[in-house]
Design goal:
mainly beta, Methylamine Dehydrogenase, Chain H, 3-stranded antiparallel sheet
């Protein structure tokens, strides 16, 4: 398999053909395969290709421009409501890799270009660059269960009320 990028072809890593969760950032990608994270690419300016050794039971991954975050299992086998932590590495220019201390047992995460959001039982937590209002999560969310981010301008959460989005360019 080969990929076309900026006028040239490059061979894709062997792991690309497997059906495992993948997260991609700026000129790099990471895959969660067999309980480990592997990263490859041409951009390692901030160490994002090198998952920390403390990440021993990754369950979910997401990547931004120059950072990667993962939810790491630290309790029972079932993720929902279990003991878990979030680990981020790579770029931290905007605080996108600095996990807030109030985040407890995260069960979902999403990264945008320069920010990160996660869900725990208390709700939505977002950190990093707020140029486009991504950190301004609404306070009226009821039992959020799923989260998604665009490249840098929007975040959406699905909760008991439906889907709510915020940030620049959100159509009401």
């Amino acid at each position: 398999m080969s990929l076309h990028h900026e006028g040239s072809y490059v061979s894709a890593p062997d792991f690309v053909s497997y059906p495992w969760p993948v997260a991609s950032g700026y000129r790099f990608a990471c895959i969660l395969k067999n309980g480990a994270i592997e990263c490859e690419g041409t951009n390692n300016n901030f160490g994002q290709l090198n998952p920390p050794s403390s990440l021993d039971k990754p369950l979910v991954i997401a990547a931004g421009e120059n950072h990667v975050c993962a939810i790491n299992k630290s309790g029972a086998d079932n993720l929902a409501g279990e003991s878990s932590s979030m680990i981020c590495w790579g770029g931290n220019t905007y605080g996108e890799s600095t996990v807030p201390s109030e985040l407890e047992n995260p069960f979902a995460l999403s990264t945008s270009w320069r920010s990160t959001c996660a869900l725990d039982k208390s709700g939505v937590h977002c950190w990093g660059d707020n140029t486009y209002g991504i950190l301004d999560a609404p306070t009226n969310l009821l039992n959020p269960v799923e989260i998604a981010s665009s490249s840098e301008k929007r975040v959406c959460v699905r909760d008991d009320n439906g889907t709510t989005c915020w940030g620049t360019g959100v159509v009401e």
